[in-house]
Amino acid sequence: xxMKAIQKELGEQDEGQxxxxxxxxxxxxxxxxxxxxxxxxxxLGRLSRMSPMAADYSVTRxxxxxxxxxxxxxxxxxxxxIPKAKEILDTDHYDLKKVKDRILxxxxxxxxxxxxxxxxxxxxGPPGVGKTSLGKSIARALGRxxxxxxxxxxxxxxxxxxxxxxxxxxxxxxxxxxIRRAETKDPVFMLDEIDxxxxxFRGDPGSxxxxxxxxxxxxxxxxxxLDVPFDLSKVLFIxxxxxxxxxxxxxxxxxxxxxxxxxTEEEKVHIAFQYLIPRQIEENxxxxxxxxxxxxxxxxxxxxxxxxxxxxxxxRNIGTIARKQARRIAEGKTEKLIVTKExxxxxxxxxKIRTEGEIAERTKRAGVAVGLAWTPAGGDVLFIEANSxxxxxxxxxxxxxxxxxxxxxxxxxxxxxxNAAQLGISESFFADHDIHIHVPAGAIPKDGxxxxxxxxxxxxxxLTDRRVRPLTAMxxxxxxxxxxxxxxxxxxxxxxxxxxxxxxxxxxxxxxTNVEExxxxxxxxxxxxxxxxTIDEALxxxxxxxxxxxxxxxEEREKVLTQPVA
Length: 566
Prior knowledge:
Elements: H1 2-10, H2 12-29, H3 34-48, H4 57-69, H5 82-92, H6 97-112, E1 120-124, H7 131-142, E2 146-150, H8 158-161, H9 174-182, E3 188-192, H10 205-212, E4 221-222, E5 229-230, E6 236-241, H11 249-253, E7 256-259, H12 265-283, E8 291-293, H13 295-305, H14 312-330, E9 337-339, H15 341-348, H16 356-362, E10 368-375, E11 378-390, E12 395-398, H17 403-418, H18 420-423, E13 433-438, H19 452-464, E14 472-474, E15 477-478, E16 484-485, H20 490-499, E17 504-508, H21 512-518, E18 528-532, H22 535-542, H23 547-562
Parallel strand pairs: 1-6, 1-7, 2-3, 3-6, 8-9, 12-13, 14-17, 17-18
Antiparallel strand pairs: 4-5, 10-11, 11-13, 15-16
Helix pairs in contact: 2-3, 2-4, 3-4, 5-6, 5-7, 12-13, 12-14, 13-14, 13-15, 16-23, 17-19, 19-22
């Protein structure tokens, strides 16, 4: 009684009472579901019986504050205008037709049935193709708030689900925190880099995401801190990943996968003039009256200073050119700069990447063939080199290659040996020579069966002393009987071949549908696609069969090597 009297004299009791009243008003105004409101009022009752000096007072008060501040009933509202949404998506991003169609389908259904659950979309593609920025555009098109959570390097399950209130300094997980920041229950919530989620002794964050990303369960998502259900079914979740392999199968099963592939040179030029150049000119404080970047210069940068499926490095290089001009203006050189190939070389330094020239140069020697590889950054060309020396018939493989690729090399050698007579190779050659296959670059790990055709071609080229046709690349798994099996990543591989200046691409016959469905006529322009069923067909296309053909290939190679850099 004495304590209460002292508190009353100090005014502490009045302050505590005001606190309780304020929290009660917030609870009433929050629009909570009945069961949550009941829990909040129960905690408020506990709080009213506590002294503000008690250890649990601030913990309970923070909990009630969190319950009261969450948008239990608040939505973005507003009717979705489909033509306007389409216009926003088209303005912000070039092409990406499949993705835009899927978003517009969702908006159309939601307009007809407002109570529908939000889909869980997963954008998969190489860096720099616009996955994250597309999420922002979708939020703009929907007229909703945008929340982004980067999952790269997240190891602790509590980051997703929160800590229980018994822990000191406990907080809700990042999903509930994101909803609080959005101030609505239906934001566009982007979970970036879902393939980079880690796992250790603190739990598996990937599994913790299962409940949030399941449309059947997320209407009653239960955060460890709140310990009451929160409805996430109106949230439009978008996840992004560079590759799907590290994503757990149950998680992958809950998401709708939408692939964003790399861009061709033509698409990059269009993106540069429509988005990148205007943005970099504005960001670097100059105007179009002071700089004019020509199409020739942009193509030169794409071919010789960037090696990517996206446009991030292209924008970086355009930014460098813009900054150089800003410096010239600051130094008093006010004349307008016309950016040509020569200016690019002056500002960015010497040529970093040689395309056609490198392939023609490296295939001048017998035993070198060009393969096509899939990488998380898109596709790439892969050189396979074979050499032989006097020895005792050993076979060496180098280039940091994985188990599957080693077995593929063994299969290629077995096929070549079993068909030696038909190929015009002496059987005794294998007994008194050592063969070495190397796959540069040696520091980069490589694996997979899709280089089988390339290895067999490199071996036959070496052992018959016939140089591979210039600007020809190939991919395909092989069997011991000489059949060529289909492989994955066809679109990325074909685009990589085009970026590298390849003219002829050899693909497994069973991959024809991938080419017809995934690649446009513009993307296949200047490319000859040859479909092969057997290694014999590949050798017929890749290696000269007559002295006249050999002379023709040599002339083609020389022409490529002597032409000026474009």
